Amino acid sequence: MGQDSYAVTVERHPAYRLSREFVVAISMKNAKGGHLSGLRSAFLLIALHSSVLLATDLSAPARSQPESITVAPNGDLILGSATSPKIYRIKKGAHSVGTFVDASSEGAVTFLGVLADSSTNTLWACEIFAASAGSASRKSVLRGFDLVTAADKFRWALPGDTNLCNDFVVGPDKSLYISDTFGAKIWRLKPGSASPELFSDDRTLFGIDGITFIGSLLYENNVIFNKLYRIPIDENGKAGKPIDVWLDKPIKGPDGMRSARGKLFVAENAGGKVDMLTVTGDSATVVVLMGGLDVPTAVEPSGDVLWYNERGADSAHSIALPN
Predict the structure, then answer these.
(1) Cβ 68 vs Cβ 128: under 8 Å
(2) pLDDT, tens only, 143-168
(3) From 136's CA, which of 93, 257, 284, 306 has a CA 20 to 30 Å away?
(4) What domains, with CATH codes, occur in the chain?
């Protein structure tokens, strides 16, 4: 674990860029006959006030461009970096951020997805190698580090001339599902296995980014084509053809995606938004929670809060997790 540390700015905002759409959605949920009762109005104000109270800003090191967010079992916040070979860690309640993993010895590398897996005490991370001059190929490695000591536990180079380990999720079967953006694949690392197996290989997976489960249902988004898909899984654990989930409004650059309380939460890197998606069958409604953000690429529900980042502003934030 690195010893260098950086100052963190912690702020609470009275008007925390909650989107008007989110406020209207809460109002509609609590409305009866188009008018709020006194009691329901009070609940609405409490909900909005709670979002404000739980809103927190954390400033990452300058030009680190935090790409991804995960929360350790003890509440520490862990950030990947799109511009440096480091993974940063902010201890719960602390006002400074330290270097947790430093992969400088690997050369010109950066980190995309990070995921704290409490069941195996592992921090999973996607390590990305810079493309060689004049080469169109891109290489990446799935790394696993001890969640407490940062000791190296696992390493697997994604196959193919061009690949991009991007994000992952631990499924209900305790397997790790890994998105490969340029390889157009999903890999699956079963518990106890030495290396992942190919889980899904479909042309619609070119551009796959965020990946998560709602219960037993696997969802993935496409950062290039602005899509959301569900991946059917049969009784033998085999993947079927991705099913296009229709969205009631367009999204731009869907990136990091996590689930909580039966909803999907998505960062739109090109749209500057954080969304909540309610999926019903093969369609989903989109509610914008936050807008006007500077390249948000990650979301992470944790307890009663929702963390998200602004890669372009070297920062991470939290708000109350909506129902």
Answers:
(1) no
(2) 999 999 999 999 999 999 899 999 99
(3) 257
(4) 64-157 (2.40.10)
